[in-house]
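User: Can you help me understand a structure? I only have the sequence.
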Amino acid sequence: MAADAMVPLIGLAAVTGLIHTLAGPDHYVPFVAIARSRGWSWRRTAWVTALCGLGHVLSSVILGAVGIAAGIAISRLESLEAVRGDVAAWLMIAFGLVYMGWGVRRAVRARPHQHSHAHLGGEVHEHEHAHDRAHLHVHAAAGQRESITPWVLFIVFAFGPCEVLIPQLMYPAAIGSPWSAVPVVLVFGSITIATMLAVVLTLTFGLQRLRFSALERHVHLVAGATVAACGAFILCGL
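Assistant: Let's start by predicting it. Here is the structure, written out as tokens:
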């Protein structure tokens, strides 16, 4: 493909990568919610976001490459992408609900309560504590969930389709220049991941400046509900 013909194609890839990401809150809200609830550092948040963004783009690239090699019509690939979108949405809902349930359990255990103690001299006093801070095995369990959370997110996003990328992959192949799809993929993927990182880190830094003391005990519950809501919005076509 001639260089002058590549310019608008690459420009289209950049614009659609930006709009596709910004228009879908599911591309950034789950990371902000989980990072806030888990207390991730900005480096960890960026790493998880970039990893999931890469899986999100590469899954559609692989599907498009297979479609080109097998001569599958674009309409069939777009139908398959729609199915993948539904699967990703249900996975996000399931993950959000499970995380929300775990958040409820943590909130109950973290509820401060009082115990009375009587001393030999007849003195009685009360002290307040929460089981979530009193038993080490709870923290160990939290660490185990911490280690798998990024990979659960990665699986969800690997199923998530980039519907707008498929036609841009198929067009160069249709005019006999399949290798011209490589710069399109690189630009689309770079813009998508960069936009995800910019939005996620901006929102995460903003939330760190806010303190919701009344909600701190329920932060995991809220995060799970937020992730599940993002999945529901996808199913509703929002």
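Now, to help you interpret it: Residues 35-110+133-235 form one domain. Strands lie at 113-118, 124-129. Let me know which part you'd like to focus on.
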